[in-house]
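Worked example (supplementary).
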Amino acid sequence: GAGVSQSPRYKVTKRGQDVALRCDPISGHVSLYWYRQALGQGPEFLTYFNYEAQQDKSGLPNDRFSAERPEGSISTLTIQRTEQRDSAMYRCASSVLTGKDGYTFGSGTRLTVV
Amino acid sequence: RKEVEQDPGPFNVPEGATVAFNCTYSNSASQSFFWYRQDCRKEPKLLMSVYSSGNEDGRFTAQLNRASQYISLLIRDSKLSDSATYLCVVRGYSSASKIIFGSGTRLSIRP
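After joint prediction of all chains, the assembly is encoded as:
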């Protein structure tokens, strides 16, 4: 697509439920990144992929968080058994492999766990 | 120590002033550097890449100091529309390296 698309834009879920956040990167962008951003803070790295391979997942807070990108395009970030502390803006970005042109972000998914 | 550090500000300067802020990084193997701009409740957007020799884009100048491991952003003749948070971004040496964002520096331009 023309830009990075994330869905849903807003998600309110009850504590303990699982949620799946979707990211559709710019066509041709082989690198895809997931970040979490709290108000007044910079984006906090979670994980990233080159093609379908997860290169680094060191930023995932715990084993309730997982991500996949099975066909090297759309990616899903899944949070199991959500907790209130998971509430944040979740941002996805994509780039060409070298990243030389920078990274393009989607509008994000605002997750609220109640 | 954080991998990428920025002065959070806020920097509050009058319109037309020149303002500069720095960002320090801890990994000496870092190879790619960028400045991003983020408006309130919006996604970060690329402002400019930072090249080894320094580079300019209109009123904006970016510099890289590898010896001291910092990058800087200078904004000349600041406009009200420059009010935003400026994020420093650092990446390692390969395509397998993650990209790290600083916490951002808030800039507010007053009339």
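Two points are worth noting when inspecting this output. The two ends of chain B are 37 Å apart (CA to CA). Chain B is about 0% helix and 55% strand.
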